[in-house]
């Protein structure tokens, strides 16, 4: 049987490619329809609006990623011992890598799209994440709080967002970083290796002791 690509999939594939490379704000629906080779009415019919199209592009990944993370977070929360922060963050590794089964280079693309959601100030995505995956995100924050009991909630908020920024920048420049590693250090680093390098760095940053200046504020 011939696997035919539906109009909806064509739009999603084109939108994903343009959103990841250009950003949500700087990508027009006409650019998407041109790349997908469909008319503008097809976007309105299948998605209704650009905001809903953005959410649908991310949902292809989130529908795979978030249930898996939710299960892993629940298992950690049910354990009788205090979880190490590195172990908590390591939960993300395999579910993120499995996004490569959703799309070619899916892991990198998803993290780039996630970063675009913040840099392009897509406020509707905050509602979308909280509405659909708020409980899962709350479990993650609770695990971080348990692993870092000396940090106030406001400090954890800042550190998690700093960490997200680090992840987004790393993924956005992933190809260049791999080329530099190969040319300067003779290291062949795939996306999995990059993520494994990130985890201990992020854990150390999130769990670092409060400075006097931080405590004063």
TrEMBL record:
Domain of life, source organism: Bacteria
Domain HTH tetR-type: 5-65
InterPro entries: DNA-bd_HTH_TetR-type_CS, Homeodomain-like_sf, HTH-type_TetR-like_transc_reg, HTH_TetR, PsrA_TetR_C, Tet_transcr_reg_TetR-rel_C_sf
Keywords, comma-separated and alphabetical: DNA-binding
GO molecular function: DNA-binding transcription factor activity; transcription cis-regulatory region binding
One Pfam family this sequence matches: TetR_N
UniProt DNA-binding region: 28-47
Protein name listed in UniProt: TetR/AcrR family transcriptional regulator
Organism: Rheinheimera tangshanensis
